[in-house]
């Protein structure tokens, strides 16, 4: 994986020659709900990828909070040449009528060096770009999620419930340390021992989460939180990417009734379907990981019925959902293109 070293892009850096464990510029997070939305609208651009689960969480949150007009999106993706490419169309493109039109950004890493010319580290998504000051202001998905949540309205952050702050942080740590990271360790493993250990951790964690969701709608009970969004963004990829490509085949997502129902439930919430582009997700993995998939063959999508479980209703919960036929039609297209009525 390539990276920036002293502001220069290197496709195959020597891991012994540099320490890329952190960012070389401070994150910025001074916005609060006291800011007027009229002053903020379209100033900050979310740069995100549909394929990356950490990026995807910001897209889901942006949709759930109805911030699509307030926070414009510029998509990063495609073949990984000098890392993530920036779409030729979008608020940061040459055709955009903004101050940024004077500079054409073709690669994500150019946003990093525009902010910190001597930056050393990985150029990762998602990031938040300030059109007025022409620099990155946030480069961590957790920071962006909290910022979006605060931007969504007055009062306590809606997806970071103050009443369950400690429990939410514990859940996020569990999802990171015992699900997301082991998933990738299994997928990138080059020894049987590493693969076996990572696989054991993944499926033990899925069993624990299955038990937790057996009698509740969301991870915190009746309250939707950022932890549910993080979990969804991993599970929606499980049977289509992590199973076939990362060899996580011991059990399917669909073999976990509560987790499968939870995933379909989140998918049915307003705006979420539009953030799930399954063909783009598959291409992001199958076409950009030469060591795991050298022949760049994309696995066929499994036949799954993504219709939400209408019977999954718990005390104190009212499940909002799109019509069931829309959910079913969205995923059955082999091309990954959503039906026009969805």
UniProtKB/TrEMBL annotation:
For this UniProt entry, what's an example GO CC term? cytoplasm
Q: Which domain of life is it from?
A: Bacteria
Alphabetically list the UniProt keywords: Transferase
Q: List, alphabetically, the SUPFAM superfamilies matched.
A: GST C-terminal domain-like (SSF47616), Thioredoxin-like (SSF52833)
**What are the GO MF terms of this UniProt record?**
glutathione transferase activity
Indicate the segments forming the GST C-terminal domain, all copies: 161-286
Pfam families per record: GST_C_2, GST_N_2
Residue ranges for the region (Disordered) are 1-23
Basic and acidic residues: compositionally biased ranges: 7-17
What PANTHER family is this protein classified in?
GLUTATHIONE S-TRANSFERASE OMEGA-LIKE 1-RELATED (PTHR32419:SF6), GLUTATHIONYL-HYDROQUINONE REDUCTASE (PTHR32419)
Would you tell me the protein name for this molecule?
Answer: Putative glutathione S-transferase
Instruction: Write down the species.
Output: Hoeflea halophila
